[in-house]
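User: Okay, second chain of the day. Same drill as before: sequence in, structure tokens out.
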Amino acid sequence: MHLIFRKTILYITLSFSSLFAIGTQFLMFPESAYDLAMGSHVSFGGSENVNPSLIKLTQSSPLLYINSGNWYGDIRTSGVNYIHKLGNYNNKIFLKQAGIADLEYRENKPSDEPNTTFGAYGFALGSGLSLNTPVGNFGVTFSALYFTIYDQSSQGLKIDLGYSNVYNNGWGVGVSILNLGSVSTFYQEKPKMPIRLLTGFTKDIELKSISSRLYTTVDFSFINDSWKIKIGNNTNWKQIKLLSGYSFTKHTSSISFGSGFLYGRFGITYAIRMGSQEIGIPQTLSLSFRLP
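Assistant: Same drill. Structure tokens below.
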């Protein structure tokens, strides 16, 4: 029985990792409420989670971000980011994880209760740097990876590279390549890294007391040989933010919304996403705090 259980679990993991979305697939999950609501954009004002050149402090004091949410399939996600100045560089130290704790094993015959339950988890711990130069912003992120299911685990390293620039006419551009690296053999196979190439642009629009930023990003995944087009909007009125996004691939589409509020040093943002596949509604709550 133990041998059958072991082989069944490993077969599911290696053959259907996109279903459980653990293994290296957790690197593709949106981390923050901003990412979930707008779609993780690489151009100016977008997400440093998909373009390390966007790691930036608008003030001299450090920033702390805490993210918590759920993805499709009842997968729980969370993360902590600390952004500060390191000499002439902007530095981000982060920890992110995704996991599910109630996967069930059942035999072929019907039963009310599973034989046992088990979990699957993925972790990334790393640091990133960005530098402003006369020709634009450059960034790099290094991460240590660890993921596990049942009694099997794998470790590895990955590197993200990015570039962005903003122009006087309100346009911004960005490009990044993510998940370069390798992980150790998992059971009898070596998992593939979900390498992605993203490129996009931003346009700022000002209307009296309301400012808006429009985003468009093309996201290509080498592991699936597939692309995704993402459109996002971030509208600010005083301390209130309204976020929205739309994305589509050859077979699927999704729409997302979010809102946030900034009060002094404290900020809170909440976002949800609805997709054409109707397999759940991901949600994320993000908190930010500017340290003294």
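DSSP finds three helices and 14 strands in the chain.

User: Thanks, on to the next one.
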